[in-house]
Structure formats: C-alpha cells, structure tokens
Specification:
9-stranded mixed beta sheet, globular, alpha/beta, Aminopeptidase, 7 helices, single chain, about 325 residues
Amino acid sequence: MKWITFLLGCFSLCSCGMMESHDTPAIEIPATEQATLRTHVQRLCAHPRYGSTINHARDYIEARFRAVGWQVHRQYFTTADGEKRCNICATRPGKKDTRYIIGAHYDACDIGEDYGVNQGADDNASAVAALLELAARLPKEDFTHTVELVAWDCEEPPYFNTPDMGSAHHAAACDKEKVLGLICLEMLGYYSDEPDSQPSIFPGYSLMLPTVGNFIAVVGDPAARELSVRLLAELKKDMPAARINLPFVHDTELYFSDHRNYYPLGIPSAMITDTSMLRNHHYHEPTDTPDTLDYNRLSIVTRALVRAVTALAK
C-alpha cells in the first residue's frame, strides 16, 4: 500500500510540473581543470576511507580547506560502538549569520577484506573533490550569507540510517532557523552515453528519469523546490540535467544520503547526484576506482555548483 500511494503521488506531482529534465549536450572543460579534480579523487582514494586509515582523508580535506583561507574546525562525536569520529567543517562568514550548508560524506563503505578494498572513487570522493574545489573557487568577495562546507563522516554502513551519521550530529547542532538551505553532494562522477544505461532498479523517481545515464540529477522534497530549481538552472546550462521534487518516503532512493537528516528540521534540502547505485555498477565494489570517473562532467557539475552557491550567498 505504501508503494501504491507513493507512486500515485509521483505521477500526480509530475503532472503538476514537479519533475523536469533538460538534454543539453555536455561542454568540454580544459584538461588542466579536470586534472585538479582528478588529483583530489586520487589523493582521497590513496588509502581506504574507513578504519584507521580514514585519517589520511581527514587530514587532506582539512589542509585543502585551510589552504584556501576558510575557517576550519573538526566536530567530534562518539558513535554507539565507541568510535571517535568527526565531521570537518569549513566556514566563510557573511554579513549575516544566515547560511547555506553544502556537504559531502568523505567515508567509504568497508566491503570486507574477503571482497577487497573499496576505494570509493565515485562514492564519495567525487563529491568531496567538488566540495574542495568549491572552497577554492568561490569569489573572494563579501557575501550576504555565511557559507558552511561540511565533509561528513559516518554516512556508510553500519552508521547509515542511525543517529550516528555525521550529518545527524551536524544537523542536531546547527541553528535550523538560520539555515536557508542544505545542498548534499552524493556521487557526482559516473556517466554513460550508452542507450538504457540508466536502469529503473527501484520504484519511485527512477521510473521518471531519462534512460541514458549522461545526466546529473537534483532531488528534493516539495519544500526544496525553489532551491532545486536554482541548482538545475545552473547545471542544465552545460550538460543534461533532471530535477525531481517529491515527498520523501523512508527506505526509497530519494532518501539515501545525508540530506535525510536536515529536511525533517524544516530546512530546504536538495541532493545533487549521478543517481548512485541506479547507474553505477561499481557501487560498493572494489572496482569503484578513480579511472572509472568522467572528469569532464564532474568539472561541469563543479563549475555549476560554484555559480549556484555564489548566487545564493550574495
């Protein structure tokens, strides 16, 4: 019954203009710009981002934020199993304390030594690389609103869908009345121009997406429609893009990232994604490596993100 109700709602909302897509051919980004993102991904994938070696990623992220002049701190928390973990928060104060939060989880899924090492290139080094470049490329001007960038820990199992998610800790600590919007970056680097490369694996929004996996998607609930429309406007300038704003239902792919911890607080929350496991068959596999990513399209998404955040913060 839950799925019948959800699907009826999907088609009803779709008919009201809550879903749209744009098939703009992808532009070509200079190789030097692509190389910067590739370097970030390779550095993040050099050591497993779980267990004791996750510190390499933490140090790299913090160092990159500091190198481009952001105020940085680590938000430590202890999980139910006694692990000391942390989010890495970078802030650029605006004239007002009202803020936009942009985040990406930096941990990778431990798939078990019997299966091999998961480098997590698309999931989620690709999004962290875009976050780091956002920090580096935002114009050096005074913004009206504060911008906060967060690299979240503990998005992956066994912490997913528990109060131990790094984003759950961050959301609980933020002043929700001052947060104007949350942009979650979740897997941004995997694309295909092959026919039927965007399978409809799950019920829900996958039924309404294009069938070629060459687009980037903006996903949010109806409260995030305005934010989602603004993000789509920048993305669709340079590559195929799709937007869906539908009520979130637990245990559906609309809900499978860190934005799940902000929208219940009334914060407009949108996720930008290459659609994750719907498209990328390397998801949570040892084959999720840096060489599988499309750095041209990842560069396009990063450029659009810089334009969108600049416009929001002004």
